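Intended use. Records like the one below are meant for learning the mapping from a protein sequence to its folded structure. Do not use them to infer anything beyond what is encoded.
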Amino acid sequence: MTSLSVDPKANGAKAAAPGKTRAEKALARFHEEERLNEGIDANILAGLWPFMRPHAKWLVISLVLLLLGSGLAVLQPWLMGLTFDAFEHRDTAARTLMQMGALILVLKLIEQCMAFPQVYLMQLAGARASGDLRVHVFRFLHTRRLGFFDRTPVGRLVTRVTNDVDAINEMFASGTLNALGDLVRLVLIVVVMLHRDWQLALITFVAVPPVALGVMWTRRRIRDAFREIRAKTARMNAYLNEQVSGMAVVQAYAREEQSAAEFDDINEAYRQANNRSIVFDAALDAAIELVQSLCIAAVLWYAGVRSLSDRVSFGTLVTFVAYIEMFFVPIRDLSARMTQLQSAMAGAERIFQLLENKEEDAPVPAAANGQAEKKDEAIAFELDHVDFEYKPGVPILRDVSIQAAKGEKIALVGATGAGKTTVASLLLRLYEAKQGEVRVFGRDVRTAPRDELRKSFAVVPQEVFLFPGTIASNIAAGDVEVDRARVVRALERIGALDLFERREGGLDAKVQERGSNFSAGERQLIAFARALYRDPPILVLDEATANIDSDTEARLQKAVWAAMQGRTALIIAHRLSTIRAVDRIVVFHKGRVVEQGSHESLLAQGGAYARLYQLQFSRGEAHAAE
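Structure written out for the chain above:
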């Protein structure tokens, strides 16, 4: 459903305080990211489990292969040590060397053969789970009320569906979950080293506590850094969306330099946030490399000292050096994987924060479920003493009461901002009335299922939104299968069939993003055809002929009035010349209904409508004279 009313003030951030830097002023126009809760990784992973469950079998197979591969990898240095020890027995050394070499080769081949399905299945499960999560978030956005989108920058929502979900997918693609295999490998290495030579093993393990403390210290800071990166990414996307959408204004007012400077500030903040994560990651990696080298040196030194009184075999030294390198590789990989895991956790945390939003679009109260409210077919729609405000303390509608009989044509007129379009938004329950009742066919809109309610309306807005696709699919918006016969009839009724059939491709002509390859008038005609295709009992025209030239409007007006026969129509108009033939005109002033009646009776009253009409009539004469 096309948005009927968006309060521009709702999107505005608080004005930047005097004395702020240019970057702060630029960022002040965006909603600052709320401080995320200190999420526990296990809880966040538990939140991801529902999306992983359908693909759990691939994940389980991958993890089993991972554990088997870790065991085979740990076994190989042990066999190498036994091979070098065999040289002490020269009569059997050659045979032992051949046997061990063949065994190590076989084990290496098995390990590598398991590596491909292990990585493939892990990434397969991750990609499918991420795809399910992305669809879930996308569908979730469709269920939020318009007030949520009024307050939330588009870039932030785009970041949730794209960047944040990609960060979770990268957790699987980069082998982050292989950390489980790393932990198993570390345990096995500890057991083997203690069994082989507990004294040399203790020399190695002395370095473990400081490394563990370093990892724990860095973990929190990397997590905070990635949270900041996600927040800066959302701001950058929001700013880019704003600039691209408003490019015509930017260029018309020569704001290119100012916009570039503001973007440079946002980009610099993003770069600095990335730099902090890189510094922590690089420092941890370098520290682990240093500790590994010191451990090898310490083992060799201690072996030399012990050899003065107690001989250490060459095979033992080879085994320990290999195990030390193998011991610190998982730790080093663990730090890199932890970095990616923290990125994924930051992304998941932000997604789950979005999914916690409770602003559901047109929810049916629990008390109303199962209660079929009796309809009154004689009254098409009614507003009964309705108050409404987009922002607390800023009333838009004040004690508005309007009733439209079935088949009646009602026009709403008044100055810009008087609340006319808001009435239509309340009828479709795009927003909730603060006070009073809104009823459609006698049923309170709060008790009606959303889809059932909105199928009673077709809306032709002033600013038409076209979806990528074809002319036919846009006219049949909402239908999975296009009924071409209905499309043709709808275009014939507004006298526009020949206009669109002349285009290359006819009714199958492609519609580019937002209908940019169509003129404003053509988009408006498609919107009219879309409304007639739906054939609802109530038609809402929100200044629907504003973007159509005079010749097209004259042809269209006749078709529109014919299309409105037999149905109720709500016409929101600024040009009073287009509504003379309606059954009743409702005049708004500062959110209140001040007059109601026919065109002739309101002119005779000499009130607000008469003044509006005289103002437009005088202005029209002045333009004609020019």
